[in-house]
Amino acid sequence: MRARRILPLLGLMSLLLVGPATQGRAVPLIADLSNHLVAITTGFSGTEMLLFGAVEERGDVVVVIKGPPADLAVYRKSQVAGVWMNTARQTFEAVPSFLAIASSAPVDEIAPPNVQARHQLNLDALVPTLSAARASPNVAAEWKRSLVASMQGEGLYPTSTGQVTFLGDSLFRTNVTFPSNVPTGSYLAQVFYLRDGAMISAQTTPLFVSRVGVEADIYFLAHKYPISYGVVAILLALLAGWLAHVAFRRS
């Protein structure tokens, strides 16, 4: 635990040292992550990561974490002959599979609507809307709300904006939480630096979520050789049942 606390502190100290050296080059924003890999192992129950940085002078910071794009399907249930069934479906293409947003103040107070939309600083801008050819505006909005609600229910989209905390006028930090069901793949950690509603600078840092160890081996076997995996799983289940039967019989 002590090592985890020291590493972010060293990172903040390095930003303090880099800041004066880069003033001549006018670097308004520097940011980094405490770790660039979320390792999913057996028994993974979620984790938390620190994002920290420094700005040239006090302003506002918005942090957006985006998961790899995926095609997500949303279903509408209706009652047919007394039974609830899926009667309609819409697929949202290239939607972020994970989203997290944090800011130093409410985003509506930091940036005007056009800046929020242009740089995708809020949930509405980050999630695409169905085209007019697929649904009318009102219906498209309902489908979008259903998608967001579904992802929020799984803990993959935020229900509220996280807090970016300033330490003095330059240093800032925020914690990003990844749930146990976080999708694997390449992520983007985007940091936006604004002042008086205008975008001053932005930085994008890569982040990776990957299975490692036994978890990775099991996942690879299940997806690469599903038939073999199924056979092995059945044999192991039969063996476990037989061993339990023998143990109870002897007792």
Tell me what you see in this structure.
It is built from seven helices and twelve strands. The longest helix has 25 residues, at 226-250. Strand 5 and strand 6 form a beta hairpin. Strands 2-12-11-4-7-8 form a six-stranded mixed beta sheet. Strands 1-3-10-9 form a four-stranded antiparallel beta sheet, with helices on one face. The protein folds into two domains: 2-207, no CATH class; 213-251. The two termini are 45 Å apart. By secondary structure, the protein is of the alpha+beta class. Helix content is 35%, strand content 37%. Helix 6 crosses helix 7.
Number of discrete helical segments: 7
The ordered H/E elements are HEEEEEEEHHHHEEEEEHH
Terminal Cα span = 45 Å
Strand order of the largest sheet: 2-12-11-4-7-8
Largest sheet features: 6 strands, mixed
Please identify the structural class as seen in this structure: alpha+beta
Please, what is the average pLDDT? 84
Q: How many distinct beta strands? A: 12
Number of domain units: 2
Low-confidence stretches: 1-7, 16-23
Radius of gyration: 23 Å
Fraction in beta strands: 35-45%
Kindly state the percentage of residues in helix.
25-40%
Instruction: Using the alpha-carbon principal axes, give the shape.
Output: flat
Entry summary:
The protein has helices at 2-21, 107-110, 113-119, 123-126, 137-153, 214-224, 226-250, and strands spanning 29-33, 37-40, 47-55, 60-66, 69-80, 83-96, 99-103, 162-163, 165-167, 171-178, 185-195, 198-211. By secondary structure, the chain is α+β, with helices and mostly antiparallel strands.
